[in-house]
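HUMAN:
Just now I want nothing more than another pair of eyes on a protein record. I would be glad if you read both lines and explained how they fit together. I have put the entry right below:
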Amino acid sequence: MFKKSAHALTERQQIMYDFINTNRIGVLASVDPNGEPHAAVIYHTVDTDFNVSFLTKTGTKKYDNLIRHNHTVYVIYEPKSQTVAQITGEAVEILDGYEINQVAAAVFITSLRTSDGGVPPIAKLQAGDYTAFRIKPRQIRMASYARPDAGDYSKIFESIESFELHPTAV
């Protein structure tokens, strides 16, 4: 899970990676079987191929939604810099116990560092067994609203498409 990318990151990719890796809390959006939206705050990890992983339990609404329809949007916001990253992609359940434990360890460490409650909220739910998902991004859009002068929208947005995230070897 915490592997190095087979390719070097561009400067733009490095900025986006650093933002996602530094700000490890976001909102995951999914859709239920009736087409109704659902969102949940989660802790995440990210690898240098921009795969975002998170911990959940098998009895949660987010688990049911992602098993039925794996398309998702994940949003990370950092208020001080007014920066937001929106990751659109497909979530795939991680089945390897070792990888699930790696995600769990990273999530618990993040929770201990960022909250007074210690353990992440998912640990407080009686909702089945622990599992984890990995979001393979199709697109990452990042906006830094504190960066440009007023009215200069050309410098607010950055975007990386899947072909830029996972270039094929030549």
About this structure: The longest helix spans residues 97-114.
